[in-house]
Amino acid sequence: MNRKNAAISVLLLVSLGHLLNDMFQAVIPSIYPMIKESLGLSFMQIGAITLTNQITSSLLQPVVGYLSDKHPRPYRLVVGMCFTLTGLLLLSAAGSFPLVLLSVAFVGVGSSVLHPESSKVARLASGGAKGMAQSIFQIGGNVGRALGPVAVALIVVPHGQGSIRWFAVLALLAVWVLARIGRWYKSQIEQYVGGKSKFDLENESHLTRRQIVVALLVLLVLMFSKDFYTANIQNYLTFYMIDKFGLSVTASQYVLFAFLVSTAVGLLVGGEVGDRYGRKYVIWVSILGSSPFALLLPYCNLTWTIVLVILVGMVMSSAMSAILVYGTELLPGNVGMISGAFFGLSFGLGGIGSALFGWLADVSSIQYVFQLTAFLPLLGIVTYFLPNIKE
Questions:
Q1: Are 29 and 50 in contact (CB under 8 A)?
Q2: What is the dihedral of CA 270, 272, 278, 283, to 10 degrees?
């Protein structure tokens, strides 16, 4: 196998590893209706579960990314998946709120290792098409998050919480996939350790320190807008569909599945367009362009709600690969740290948003939460202040 084919194979394996990891992550919000009833939890406790999972995911990611840049280890990914495996087994037997929190914390730690390391591997295997490589990597995650609710509907809902242990078999498959990636990654470490890859060197940033700081602050606002809004959809769409339209738990899971599939499509389009025409244009259209759909969504009937959920997912998701690659081009040579910080920030903001919206749903209503969060994509207007980065 020549070098190009090897890199493509690794990129597909990285996407598969991301798919499996994020499918395990998606199991957590998908069982919320079940454990809310069985354990007698409030919406605020549901939000606290998401916060625990995403805080453990987010806080460690910049640290793992920094270590990856300074002290890369080819099999760190395998260690991370072992944490996820432990968390799934604990979750299948969790009979109390504290044990659920411990379980999702283990799953979060596993995810915190996978994202920055895998993102760096994807960049090394990109062949220069960094946006498309990130999109392929992230599509795996989106497909995994889409499969999670379906798997829960088919396996966990009819057979109970204990059936979550069957996902541990897939976690063992993920360990095998990540071990194969580790062998290729080891050869890349030997080639690039102590220096930057040729793609980093070809894309050195020529911006001033002030421009870089402003750009990072703008990206922070954009991620706040995107991740707060997406956290509401991912964690409370099923409750919204049940509350407003009287759907069953299984039917509401399929609506969530449609949203997550649409985000995978948006990622692929965003990566290709970003490579061809520039990341800034993708970010413009993605965040601000989704605001009309978001504003209309809380006031539509069932059919149009599903249509708008799909459109919002497709348009807004196209920003993630563009934001991530844009950030790594601001600070070349720090791919692991930037990837870890951005993924960690995304999970952290999502966790905070989930807890906040859970509390708000308790004191008002889930429909009011959807009306309020519809204004978040309007913050996409700050994209105007992003400097142009020449490719």
A1: yes
A2: 0
User: What is the full DSSP assignment across 276-306?
Assistant: HH-HHHHHHHHHGGGHHHHHHGGGS-HHHHH
pTM of the predicted model as reported, rounded to 2 decimal places: 0.69
8 Å CB contact between 9 and 122: no
Helices (H), the chain: 3-30, 32-38, 43-70, 76-93, 97-124, 130-151, 157-159, 167-192, 198-202, 209-245, 249-277, 279-287, 291-296, 302-317, 319-330, 335-363, 366-373
DSSP character for 386? Answer: S
pLDDT tens-digit series, residues 218-248: 888 888 888 889 888 888 898 899 999 988 8
Exposed / middle / buried, residue 190 (Cβ in 10 Å: 0-12, 13-18, 19+): exposed
8 Å CB contact between 181 and 77: yes
CA angle 264, 232, 98 (to 5 degrees): 105
107 and 87 Cβ atoms separated by less than 8 Å? yes
Question: For residue 175, which of 65, 17, 23 has the smallest C-alpha distance?
Answer: 17
In the block, which residue shows the tokens 């520039």? 278
**Reduced to 3 states, what is the DSSP secondary structure of residue 327?**
helix
Residue type, 163: S
Compute, in degrees rounded to 10, the torsion defined by CA atoms 326, 331, 333, 339: -50
- Which pair of tokens denotes residue 28? 């957590």
How distant, in Å, are the alpha carbons of 7, 114, 252, 293 from that of 241? 42, 32, 6, 17
**Cβ atoms of 226 and 287 closer than 8 Å:** yes
In sequence order, the 6+-apart residues with CB closer than 8 A to the CB of 215 are 207, 326, 330, 385, 386, 387
Q: Residues 303-353: pLDDT tens digits? A: 999 999 999 988 888 887 778 778 777 777 666 677 767 776 776 677 778
How far lies 308's CA from each of 114, 291, 343, in Å?
Answer: 32, 11, 26
The distance in angstroms from the start CA to the end CA of the chain is: 30
* Interatomic CA distance for residues 246 and 252, integer angstroms: 9
